[in-house]
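batch job 7 of whatever, protein = Cationic amino acid transporter C-terminal domain-containing protein
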Amino acid sequence: MNPNGITLLGSLIRRKNVDSADDARREQASQQLAKILTLLDLIAIGIGSTIGAGVYILIGTVARDHSGPALTVSFLIAGIAAALSAFCYAELACRCPSAGSAYHYTYICVGEGVAWLIGWSLILEYTISASAVARGVSPNLALFFGGEEGLPNFLARHTIPGLGIVVDPCAAILIFIVTALLCIGIRESVLAQTIVTSVNICAMLFVIIAGGYLCFRTGWVGYNLSSGYFPFGTNGMLAGSAVVFFSYIGFDTITSTTEEVKNPKRDVPLGIGISLSVCCALYMLISIVILGLVPYYSMDLDTPISSAFADYGMDWAVYIVTMGALTALCATLMGSILPQPRILMAMARDGLLPSFFSEINKKTHVPVMSTIATGIFAATLAFCMDVSQLAGMVSVGTLLAFTTVAISVLIIRYVPPTEIALPSSHSESVGSGSDDFLGIHLTSSNYPPENYVSGSPLLMDEQKECVQDKQNQQRKQKVATLSIFFICLGALVLASAASVENLPSLASFTLYFVGGVVLVCSLIILVCIDQDESKLSFGQTGGFTCPFVPFLPAACILINTYLLLNLGTGAWTRVSVWLAAGVLVYVFYGHSHSSLSKASRASAAAVDVHCPLLADQP
């Protein structure tokens, strides 16, 4: 136990306040991020971060192996599933409008331990994503030079003799360029992302318009199939949805910039919704057109779109498609590097990482040190390491974040944090003992003699009723907490039953039955429990609220758990090594340096009564 009486286990569940008093001090010291982003900026960030070059390849693979002509439906279902997480992110971004995204929300709602693991996972996710995207640029760029042999020597890939390591200077140079752009300022980097995203969208519109024209001329030959619209059945269509779901990852980048948005309560939910809708519409329209040009079983797995146009004598279209893929890679690269410095900054603000990560340049209002560290780390990986085998680790971090965000919404609605972290210098001024009622000692010192009749306070009956109401509220919150836990447990059991192959029928039925009963019963209990009144005043009020609670977050938890279990043992093994390293960092540094390590806890009501000016302090 440390000097403040906080054990390591206790530190895992301590939660920070929505608004920190350090915010005001940072603003006075010009340490705030610049609030300059508008709705159009957020839409550009969301679309650019979401639509990567994968869609130019993914269509052929998923259509041939899973969905067939029903690929459009697969994209629609995946878009709806992604929207479930988007709703949860939108509410939390409005209530907790600060940098850090899922890490920040988890720290407020779940606790420091889980928040650390989410932040640590997101660091890995964004780094590997940026490295993988950067290494995909040189093959596309080589097309404009007549092949990889035509690339300038300083951009071409080289193999180190004796080691067999293929280095990619082009990837490292591109990451350094993006890093420098991000250090200049958020306005300049968003402008660049808007330009490359616009070029990508123009290329996709060309595919849709030109391809649609060819389809109407040829009679949509790709759909004239004896096997029907669902050649692989509904299971194949759903399997395709699980694959293309990852094409929608990227909208969460918007929430990492919440602190830099002029009007986050209005623009962040709209930015997430519009960007996700645009991406879904583009995906569906492209899949309709390409599958109308070429039967799904004849599609080229490597270049499905370019090959489809080449079959109709439009070989020159490959340059437009490649330009779209190239700009998509650049936009995704910016979207991968942009949020990581802000997560590092948020973790450093909370004391979990060294303080230099939280330093903000006074001129550019950008976390320069975090951005440079991110760029060096990502460029090193991209230069000397083939990160394609590590791609599954990206999905683990994203899905873990999606799951904890959904759980956080349930916590806010039913068991919102009611304690406030106070500096140790103020802890003595607030009562927190077991003999307190809402932080006020019920002794004669609280009531002058004129308020007594026959030795009892005049308001004792009302006080007893309030005490009973508080006890009932605590019992209700305990039931709600258990229900949320069993929702997660039921989702895990159901997802396990659906994921395990070659499971005996009896065991499969038992898992489905037990998981379904636990999940449904827990949802029924939450529906019968009124949502906590504290949710109305938790965090910043007046913004977007997630609809259909608790059903929507529960569906989100179930879908993300299923996808997590299907990522494969290889991805989980590699992620476990990274998470184990994160645990060591937390134990030997984050635990003792946390800004909450010297804070005391008190109920919000006690702070309001005894020291109302401290209600917003950490």
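notes: The first helix runs from residue 8 to 12.
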